[in-house]
Design brief:
The protein has 176 residues and is of the alpha+beta class. It is built from 3 helices and 9 strands. The strands form 2 sheets. A 7-stranded antiparallel beta sheet has the order 2-3-4-8-7-6-5, with helices on one face.
Length: 176
């Protein structure tokens, strides 16, 4: 099974898209991803957080689960790149199609400069929804991923609504 697109780490996306960044230090993002985590009765915990020139990545799994054996995975990213929003999203989309040419994918464009993709892939082994949002300083994204062999369509529907209603908010760390 190909795994290059599974969790979409920022540095892998930059590698896939051929994007080179000229940043020498990670800036404090002006914004953050706001979403209704409390709408899910399942408690989530971060298990992987990383920063690099390409951005910031936070991966979360339900409490009591291990990220190495995830069945549900929530990913927040802030991506710093020089491609621009539209080119980045198109490169991401083309990379996904390259992983599975028969992928079932729905593209949802919003008036607020956001693009979401809902997809199911037997080749990749997951159902996912990812929303990319154009921010003033970066591309912000939120995704929910579940393994196809254990994915509850009820939970996927809940997370579809949560992800589609996510937004860019003022970085709470800057409000302190």
């Amino acid at each position: 099974m190909k795994t290059g697109i599974l969790i979409l780490p920022a540095l892998l996306i930059i590698t896939l898209t051929g994007c080179e960044t000229t940043r020498t230090e990670l800036p404090e993002p002006e914004k953050a991803v706001g979403f209704a985590l409390q709408a899910d009765p399942v408690q989530w915990e971060p298990q992987n957080m990383s920063e690099g020139e390409g951005g910031i990545l936070i991966e979360m799994v339900p409490v009591g689960h291990e990220i190495s054996e995830w069945t549900e995975l929530l990913v927040q990213q802030i991506l710093f790149n020089d491609l621009g929003f539209e080119r980045f999203v198109e490169a991401w989309y083309q990379g996904l199609k390259a992983e599975d040419e028969d992928i079932q994918i729905e593209r949802i464009e919003d008036a607020d400069e956001a693009i979401a993709f809902v997809y199911s892939s037997e080749v990749i082994g997951q159902n996912s929804i990812v929303r990319f949002m154009k921010g003033p300083d970066a591309i912000y994204s939120l995704s929910y991923n579940c393994k196809t062999d254990s994915c509850s369509m009820e939970r996927f529907g809940l997370w579809r609504e949560i992800v589609l209603n996510s937004s860019i908010v003022v970085n709470p760390e800057l409000q302190l």
